[in-house]
């Protein structure tokens, strides 16, 4: 019988049929006259059995891990509980090697990942991604992006693609990557926020999924030099409505991801035995910045002082990463931390009416990660914005297009940015955001 060419994920529909599959040798084991291959093709894993009756069984003994092969045979259903993926396996009647891998250490790299030095693993990322942990992570990442887009579509936001090469900063000069742009100074974007704001009068509420770049000199679990930034901007809304929108987007996106059984299984596989991701319950807790300062002091969560000794937090302090995480882990659920002092936040943030030292700003904090979203209402008055540039020491000239928004039909508006890798670290119980990127970029690492 002729064999139909299929991908591994289709195997379940092809039980009893003769099929042809292309893939890579993920695992290899010999047991008497039988050779077991776990074949991988990106869509799944399939156990293939080569028996002594096969004309090429002898060649099979020279098979190596990570070789690419073509294999034909019949998909046999197995009794429940037999150790094979999805309770079926391919009983092979023929195979051929497409690209033979050398075998030995090189090809084994992705199977022994835990034992390797981090730098070696990072250099070998192109092989490590073939392993189950990373490939599952990347599959969930793809599902998450789809789910974000579906959530935004259902809420009526339009997707735009802003530029990555820019001449303005958004989140402070110290983390800018600068480069020469045909003789002019330019930067890799820190955030698409300013561009999204310009879209409101043209396209209505908008979102983007774009790379953002930060020259973060410190090594932390959650800082990357390049990361995927999901950002949205909405017009004619209040701060409270902005918070409700953020909650809605996150819950719809998470629900969408968990609703697909395949994705759910991948997520579960990344949690330790007996543990799993707990979807957040609504409404998210809201906590005023000043109450967070109080919380830290009441729970002995200190702040590192300039002389090396730790001390209590005072209003006006930036709550450092460690303190923020300690508080979030103690509380153990998502927190909207709101109303930060203006001195520690970005120049464009709207002040709280009647409480001008503070801003209509929000950080969404998640257990195990800390801040995953930063957002705010934006200043809508022209004079106020000009004053803010001055206070920040920003030359307003290159910002003319941003300033113009306050001239041609200004409105109350607000938005936020979400770090995709941080959301994934929360969802997939990863220790660092680096594990959730295809080829992570951080201090000292720009390859592969
Ligand atoms: O809090 P941030 O700096 O806010 C902004 O960029 C706003 N302009 C966004 C907006 O309002 N449109 O960054 C937003 C989020 C953070 O909460 C964090 O999740 C992520 O981006 N982020 C990083 N993720 C990984 N590595 C870094 N170095 C990051 N810096 C920020
Ligand atoms: Mg922030």
Compile the SSE list and pairings.
Layout lengths: L3 E2 L12 E14 L2 E7 L4 E6 L6 H4 L7 E10 L10 E12 L5 H4 L9 H6 L1 H4 L3 H23 L3 E2 L5 E2 L10 E5 L2 E5 L4 H11 L2 E8 L12 E10 L3 H21 L1 H9 L15 E4 H10 L4 E2 L5 E2 L9 H11 L3 E4 L12 E2 L2 E5 L1 E6 L3 E8 L4 H11 L7 H5 L8 E7 H8 L21
Parallel strand pairs: 1-2, 4-6, 7-11, 13-16
Antiparallel strand pairs: 2-3, 2-5, 3-4, 5-6, 8-10, 9-10, 11-12, 12-21, 14-15, 16-19, 17-18, 19-20, 20-21
Helix pairs in contact: 5-7, 5-8
What can be said about this structure in brief?
This protein is an alpha+beta fold and 448 residues long.
Listed once per kind, the bound small molecules are: 4-amino-1,4-dioxobutan-2-aminium adenosine-5'-monophosphate, magnesium ion
Low-confidence stretches: none
Sheet with the most strands, sense and barrel status: 8 strands, mixed
The end-to-end distance, rounded to whole angstroms, is: 44 Å
This entry's quaternary arrangement is: single chain
Named at the architecture level, the CATH assignment of the largest domain is 2-Layer Sandwich
Number of strands: 21
The CATH topology of the largest domain corresponds to BirA Bifunctional Protein, domain 2
Number of helices: 13
Structural class given helices, strands, pairing?
alpha+beta
The fraction of residues in strands falls at 25-35%
Strand order, largest beta sheet = 7-11-12-21-20-19-16-13
CATH class of the largest domain: Alpha Beta
Radius of gyration: 26 Å
Query: What is the helix content?
Result: 25-40%
CATH evolutionary superfamily of the largest domain: Bira Bifunctional Protein, Domain 2
EC number: 6.1.1.22
Family: Belongs to the class-II aminoacyl-tRNA synthetase family.
Enzyme class: ligase
Protein name: asparagine--tRNA ligase
């Amino acid at each position: 019988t002729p064999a139909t060419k299929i991908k591994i994920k289709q195997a379940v529909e092809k039980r009893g049929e003769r099929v042809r599959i292309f893939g890579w040798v993920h695992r290899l084991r010999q047991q008497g006259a039988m050779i077991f291959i776990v074949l991988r093709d990106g869509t799944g894993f399939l156990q293939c059995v080569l028996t002594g009756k096969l004309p090429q069984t002898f060649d099979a003994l020279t098979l190596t891990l990570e070789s690419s092969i073509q294999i034909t045979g019949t998909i046999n259903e197995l009794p429940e509980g037999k150790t094979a993926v999805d309770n079926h396996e391919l009983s092979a009647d023929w195979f051929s090697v497409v690209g033979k891998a050398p075998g030995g250490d090189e090809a084994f790299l992705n199977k022994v990942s835990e034992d390797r030095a981090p730098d070696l693993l990072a250099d070998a990322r192109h092989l490590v991604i073939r392993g189950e942990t990373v490939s599952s992570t990347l599959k969930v990442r793809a599902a998450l992006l789809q789910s974000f887009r579906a959530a935004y579509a259902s809420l009526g936001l339009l997707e735009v693609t802003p530029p990555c090469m820019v001449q303005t900063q958004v989140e402070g000069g110290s983390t800018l990557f600068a480069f020469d742009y045909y003789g002019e100074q330019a930067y890799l974007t820190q955030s698409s926020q300013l561009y999204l704001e310009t879209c409101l009068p043209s396209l209505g509420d908008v979102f983007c999924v774009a790379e953002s770049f930060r020259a973060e000199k410190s090594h932390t679990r959650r800082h990357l030099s390049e990361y995927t930034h999901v950002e949205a901007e909405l017009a004619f809304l209040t701060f409270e409505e902005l918070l409700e929108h953020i909650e809605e987007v996150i819950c719809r996106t998470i629900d969408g991801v968990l609703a697909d059984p395949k994705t759910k299984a991948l997520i579960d596989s990344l949690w330790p035995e007996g543990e799993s991701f707990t979807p957040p319950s609504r409404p998210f807790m809201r906590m005023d910045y000043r109450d967070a300062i109080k919380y830290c002091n009441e729970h002995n969560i200190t702040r590192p002082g300039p002389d090396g000794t730790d001390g209590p937090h005072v209003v006006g302090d930036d709550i450092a990463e460690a303190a923020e995480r300690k508080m979030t882990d103690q509380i153990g659920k998502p927190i909207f931390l709101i109303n930060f002092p203006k001195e520690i936040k970005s120049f464009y943030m709207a002040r709280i009416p009647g409480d001008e030292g503070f801003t209509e700003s929000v950080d969404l904090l998640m257990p195990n990660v800390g801040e995953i979203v930063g957002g705010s209402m934006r200043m809508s008055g022209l004079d106020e914005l000009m004053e803010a540039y001055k206070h920040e020491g920003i030359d307003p000239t290159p910002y003319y297009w941003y300033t113009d928004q306050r001239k041609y039909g200004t409105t109350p508006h607000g938005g936020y940015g979400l770090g995709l890798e941080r959301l994934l670290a929360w969802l997939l119980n990863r220790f660092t955001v680096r594990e959730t990127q295809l080829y992570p970029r951080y201090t000292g690492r720009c390859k592969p």
